[in-house]
Structure formats: C-alpha cells, structure tokens
C-alpha cells in the first residue's frame, strides 16, 4: 500500500507527515506500507524547511534527506491513499484523478466529512512547527489505527 501526503510546497507539513508515518511503520512492523509526499506548488528537489528540520531532529524524525516534488497525475495514480493538509490540496489531488482515494487528513476515513486543515507553519516560529508536528502525529496515528482495523487478518 502506498500512502501520499500532500501540502503546498512539500517542505514543511507533508515532509513531517511522511517522516512521522515512516517512524510509525517501523514501530508497528508494517512491511507492506510505503510513504511519500508532494506539494501542489512545490519546487522540485527543495530541502525541508529549517523549522521542519529542527523539529525533525527534536523528535528523531528523518527529514534531512528530503527532496520536494510537485504533485502530478502519475503520483496520484501510483498512490493507494492520498492525505491532504487542506481543502485546496484535496481539490487538486482529486482534479489529478484522486477522487475516491484522497482525503483531508483530519477527515479520514469519511470522504467529504468535515475536517480541518493542518495549519501551515511556513515562515512561523519554531513553536508553529512543533504544533503542526503534534497535530500530524495525532492524525497519522489515527489513520494507521483505522487502516489496521480495516485489514482482514490472514486465516490459516
């Protein structure tokens, strides 16, 4: 299963979300989940922002090797589930063919449910990045719990 996290520039929220998801995959021993991130207005190959890097270091999240990428139709098509940080990101993912598998992160698993945007810390103080990371961790843990509950256990 391939999960894709989407924000605007792919340098703050979605790289943190990707790193949090990778950490949870390791913690939970999930070998069949791959994660990536992209931005609706990203410059290709930009590093994570300084705030994201610092918060990543504080939390032992690997964002140091991050390289941003633009959200494309190919990325959307190759992803099983797409989690967006805000409504305009959701609209873009759906416009690129992601209808039915794209969700506002805070609204998953109910398509069209009222959710809230994850605040963009870009240009803010380090505390804004910490707050975003806290919220991302809560929401991604909830997503992983939902995914685990939806999986049918193997029967002998």
What does this 3D model show about the protein?
- This protein is α/β, with parallel strands linked by helices and 156 residues long.
- The protein has one domain (2-150): Response regulator (Rossmann fold), CATH 3.40.50.
- Helix content is 44%, strand content 12%.
- The chain has five helices and four strands.
- It has helices at 13-28, 50-58, 73-78, 87-98, 126-150; strands at 2-7, 34-39, 81-84, 102-104.
- Strands 2-1-3-4 form a four-stranded parallel β-sheet, with helices on both faces.
- Helix 1 (13-28) packs across helix 5 and helix 2 crosses helix 5.
- The radius of gyration is 15 Å and the shape is globular.
- The two termini are 22 Å apart.
- The mean pLDDT is 95.
Distance between the amino and carboxyl termini = 22 Å
* Rough outline: globular
Give me the CATH fold name. Rossmann fold
User: Uncertain regions: pLDDT < 50 for 5+ in a row?
Assistant: none
E-strand count: 4
**Top-tier CATH class:** Alpha Beta
Largest beta sheet: strand ordering: 2-1-3-4
Helix content: 40-55%
Identify the CATH architecture. Answer: 3-Layer(aba) Sandwich
**CATH superfamily label:** Response regulator
Please render the helix and strand layout as text:
Layout: E1 2-7, H1 13-28, E2 34-39, H2 50-58, H3 73-78, E3 81-84, H4 87-98, E4 102-104, H5 126-150
Parallel strand pairs: 1-2, 1-3, 3-4
Helix pairs in contact: 1-5, 2-5
């Amino acid at each position: 299963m391939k999960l894709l996290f989407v924000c605007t520039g792919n340098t703050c929220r979605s790289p943190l979300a990707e790193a949090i998801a990778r950490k949870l995959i390791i913690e939970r021993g999930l070998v069949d989940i791959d994660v990536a991130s992209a931005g609706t207005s990203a410059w290709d190959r930009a590093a994570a922002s300084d705030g994201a890097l610092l918060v990543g270091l504080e939390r032992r999240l690997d964002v140091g090797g991050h390289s941003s990428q633009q959200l494309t139709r190919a990325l959307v098509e190759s992803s099983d589930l797409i989690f967006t940080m805000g409504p305009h990101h959701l609209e873009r993912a759906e416009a690129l063919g992601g209808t039915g598998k794209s969700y506002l992160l805070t609204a998953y698993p109910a398509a069209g449910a009222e959710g809230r945007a994850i605040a963009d810390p870009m240009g803010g103080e380090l505390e804004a990045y910490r707050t975003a990371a806290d919220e991302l961790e809560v929401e991604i843990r909830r997503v992983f719990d939902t995914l685990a509950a939806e999986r049918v256990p193997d029967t002998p």
